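#struct-help
A.M.: can someone run this one for me? Single chain, 205 residues.
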Amino acid sequence: MNLEQRTQALLDLVEQYRTRRSAELLEPAMAEARATRRAARAESRRRVTTAIAEERKRMALEVGTVEAALATDRRLASQRHAVQLLTDAWRDLRARLRMRWDDESSRARWTERHLKRALQAVPPTAGWLVQFHRAWTEPERVRAQQWLDAHGGPAVRFEEDASIEAGFRIVGGHNVLDATLEGLLADRAQLQGRLLHFLQQEACA
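D.P.: on it. Structure tokens below:
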């Protein structure tokens, strides 16, 4: 083997060593790089998943807050509507009752109905004081006394009362039957509850 051949053989040996050594050094580096990329991708997915979950929680919280606010607004609006309905209905009820008292025929029915109640609720022993609104005329009062006489009622003393807006009040001893407008509307809470129930039924019909 001449010098040139020995030199080439030496160069081939060096190249083989370089190739082997490069492979020995490169493979771990590439493996490490692959592992790093995998870890980076996993971390990226974890961060994205966490970010999405947090965003969903935030959105759910915001949606819940908005829905709660809307529910509160609807409830308040419903309450305001109910209050307005009751205010209007109460005003209308008072006006209608006054109209009934102002009308002679309906005033007669009002009178007879509550005189019947008084016969059951107010003892006749000491006689009755009947305080009345001025619209109740003397002929009507005479007829009322005659009706009471026919039904076993007591003697009555009539007294006009300027504070009465409509109707009359019967006083017998310590017993009172209040058939005035204010007396009939005295239990406002119960009446408004019934009014609201009626109005709601009417709205659903």
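A.M.: thanks! The chain has a mean pLDDT of 84.
D.P.: also worth noting: The chain has two domains: 1-78, 103-190.
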